[in-house]
Amino acid sequence: MPSLFFFIREAAIGLRRSGLMTVLSLCTLAVSMLVLGFFLLFTVNVNNLADFFVSRLEIRVFFRDDITRRDKRDFHTVVQGFDTVREVEFVDKAVAWETLKQQYSGTQLTRYIDKNPLPDTMIIRVTDQTKIQAMVSKLETYTTVVDDIVYGGYITERIQLLSKWLRISGWGFNALLLLATLMIIVNTIRLTIMARHNEVEIMQLVGATRWFIRWPFVIEGFVLGVVGSTVSVVMLKFSYDAVAKYIQQQFPFMPLIFNSPILWWIYAGLFIIGTVLGVMGAYISISRTLE
Amino acid sequence: MPSLFFFIREAAIGLRRSGLMTVLSLCTLAVSMLVLGFFLLFTVNVNNLADFFVSRLEIRVFFRDDITRRDKRDFHTVVQGFDTVREVEFVDKAVAWETLKQQYSGTQLTRYIDKNPLPDTMIIRVTDQTKIQAMVSKLETYTTVVDDIVYGGYITERIQLLSKWLRISGWGFNALLLLATLMIIVNTIRLTIMARHNEVEIMQLVGATRWFIRWPFVIEGFVLGVVGSTVSVVMLKFSYDAVAKYIQQQFPFMPLIFNSPILWWIYAGLFIIGTVLGVMGAYISISRTLE
Amino acid sequence: MIAIQSLSKLYDNDCYGLNDVSLAIDQGEFVFLVGPSGSGKTTLFNVLHGRERPSSGRAQVLAYELTRLLADQLPVLRRDVGMIFQDYKLLPKRTVYENIAFVLQVLHYKRRRIHQLVHQVLDLVGLTNKAHDYPRALSGGEQQRICIARAIVHQPRILLADEPTGNLDPDTAWDIMQLLGKINQRKTTIIVATHDWRIVNKMRRRVVRLMNGSVVSDTIMGHYA
Amino acid sequence: MIAIQSLSKLYDNDCYGLNDVSLAIDQGEFVFLVGPSGSGKTTLFNVLHGRERPSSGRAQVLAYELTRLLADQLPVLRRDVGMIFQDYKLLPKRTVYENIAFVLQVLHYKRRRIHQLVHQVLDLVGLTNKAHDYPRALSGGEQQRICIARAIVHQPRILLADEPTGNLDPDTAWDIMQLLGKINQRKTTIIVATHDWRIVNKMRRRVVRLMNGSVVSDTIMGHYA
Ligand SMILES: Nc1ncnc2c1ncn2[C@@H]1O[C@H](COP(=O)(O)OP(=O)(O)OP(=O)(O)O)[C@@H](O)[C@H]1O
Ligand SMILES: Nc1ncnc2c1ncn2[C@@H]1O[C@H](COP(=O)(O)OP(=O)(O)OP(=O)(O)O)[C@@H](O)[C@H]1O
Ligand SMILES: [Mg+2]
Ligand SMILES: [Mg+2]
Questions:
Q1: Which of A175, C11, C216, D107 could lock onto C211 through a cystine, CB 3.0 to 4.6 A?
Q2: Cα distance from A207 to chain B (closest Cα, Å)?
Q3: Ligand 1 atom 24: the closest Cα is on which residue?
Q4: pLDDT at A168
Q5: Which of C14, C19, C37, C41, when mutated, tests ligand 1's pocket best, judged by the most ligand atoms within 8 Å of its CB?
Q6: How far apart are CA A185 and CA D124, in angstroms?
Q7: Does ipTM exceed 0.90?
């Protein structure tokens, strides 16, 4: 039984001697993976953005600077008294500032502001979005405690709709793209192997078994898949980081995904998809050619 | 000089006798065009949606049903009196209803509602988005005329940001996709022609000029381009219409693009891109092979 | 060894490649297959090599009944039946050395043994200095000799040689025939399709003559008129 | 017609295909090119046909100086210089008819004339019944004859025939040679590379012998020892 090393060497010879053909398939593979990757990143960011907007549909009460702990506690009791309140969260201005600084650590934000500009805040989430306005009107009367109130209003449902729509169509489009990538890669590898069907025929004529012929081609597919997806993942990571950083600087409050495990999942997923497609494409093509 | 017809016949022979190869390149071409097309449609819709939200950042005053013309005119004078008002528009409930019915003619909307449910409305656009809340508070006091007021509030700037971001990243991604499609199609046609380089060499050996060899291949590329992009455009149109109709029924107030000339521009553009790429890909490949 | 009974091969275009051929060849025989162009010599070889299925009749090669050969058995058959192809069929992207070594790799020979055997056989056909060239850099006759080397390197039990000297000068051709004769002495059954009547007449072996797909004569120690 | 002066062809692998060859061939001559396998016959043809650039020396064919041939002139040269390739080089995806017709289409012949000429030449090589088969469905000798038919159908002024009878039985081979002789009588210059000493000796024409890329003898009414 010949060693795996033998087949790997054979695959290397095949790839090297098909030169331009190898380069063309590699490019096609990397490009289609890159497109898929970009769109995945785009989708998760848009979804994140939409989540961000939806989650912001709440009432934010900014306290005056000159009030006491006691005032706040009293106000809290008042708010708890409303029957439409689902949840009340108290955000200390120091904590809020820390969070903000951490969130936008990549930007210029903290360079120019060194004193905490944020007030203490109470975040109120309601059980019924339509009652927000009524509640705001009542809260506004507590002028001794409340400095300002912001809230979403009628746009709430629209935003939720938008978010839902973006999510559905984004993932739908991703599924389509995955399918397309799959087809393009398999077709490309198929074309590459078809161009060598004479070679395969000659191998059969001198007594090589199917598996003996198949292995090097499958390994070639594997190598194409690994190299192609590595190239695309690396390009993806660097260009995403660059673009995201740029956008973040332009629009500091835009909630982009940075250093999140989801990014690593995407990169790993792409790598696996590319590799699997390379192997599968080669396996299918060579099997058809062998028939 | 052989006729164009001769070259067309030659191209047809080439395509037919390369059977599977033709099918594979055709699929690849159609699939990548389809992806490009879908994303174009997606982008214009998202942009449209964002525009829709931004343009809705205005104060809408819904009048009570029981007021007179006179009341409205008086109220109009009051509104004009504010120094932050940029524009005031009065929408008659009958007109609003007609517009709505027309906009959503594809949906079930008008089937279930036969009485006009809309009130007369006044739309106020302000010069400074930050003053909206103050104005709303004042307008709310005219309870004899005003039934309800809706407005955007603090989300305004966020929405504008979102819109801008979506637009930039959407078109950036489209450019990338166009490039990818270009590469994939050219690579695929290149692989297809490379597989026939022996054929080309033999033609040269029996004294065929470059153009004599080139023409049929270029025509093959043209045919691949035309057929591939026609397939993708037809699939695109039907699936877009179906999907858009479905979404419209699910979310009747979602402003999707229907029957707009922009759709026809996209379809025509895709067709032209596919055709040009087919011809260009073939021309480049065959020229390289001839060297 | 080889037993053919009323074998016919009808091609898709209604052309009979072989028409009711019966033939028996024993182990260790040396047979010339002659006949005009298009008489079915290559077709017969292709059937014996499992490349073409016969349309009717029976053909037994070694332990294999070709009319019901399983896909798995084909490679095994081909290791026992070496063939020198009329159109060479060398792997274009492998060097001469690799082309010949491939047959041994298929048979799982050790690397050192492969090296030894390939150089031995290249020496036999006189092309040691071309070992690392690609087939396209060889002359017609050189390619033919590589094809011969590939067919004999693993010492198959049956050797089918289709026009093995068509592109060789008379001296080299005669050397190759002598070589085939020597291989035959090691009990390898050899069938040679050829148009070279000088060689046929000089060797004085069994001669089977085909015409339009049928055997028209079968003579021991025959000659080519 | 053909004038070669100290022509050399050194291949990339440092192998001399031709080494200081000088040769003059007049219009209407019939020349046999002989020599052992690998002596440079095909290389000489490839140079004359513009497939390989000579490394040094000069080669004039008709009005073309091959050492400085422009890319545009190559197709024109090849219409005047027909070649029968040792490895056939038929278009695999075209029928026999289309393969031959292609040469005439390149020359912008009318469709009706093409039809007439192709059938005439197929008749000459005895393969009218194979007109609509693909090359892969032909025997070695049949492919060779198609290649001959393609090379002569447009009556080139020079015909280079590389081993045109290597896969033919003696009778067909002799017929083909007679045919080439007939074409030669119409003032077509013919050079035939061959190993078939019987034909060379029977035809009694000029014989140029190559060895390791050099001309070692050039005899009028020569023969092949
Ligand atoms: N794949 C095929 N499909 C159709 N017909 C074929 C096929 N292969 C061969 N033939 C026909 O069968 C006949 C016998 O062909 P074969 O190749 O066996 O001849 P041959 O004896 O080897 O001739 P040669 O000496 O010229 O090589 C020929 O007429 C040929 O045209
Ligand atoms: N493309 C090439 N690259 C390198 N060497 C080559 C190339 N083509 C031919 N040769 C070498 O040049 C020499 C002459 O080859 P050529 O094909 O001219 O021989 P030939 O006389 O036609 O032989 P045959 O009778 O076997 O066809 C041979 O040794 C061959 O290996
Ligand atoms: Mg044959
Ligand atoms: Mg030669």
A1: C216
A2: 25
A3: C37
A4: 80
A5: C41
A6: 50
A7: no
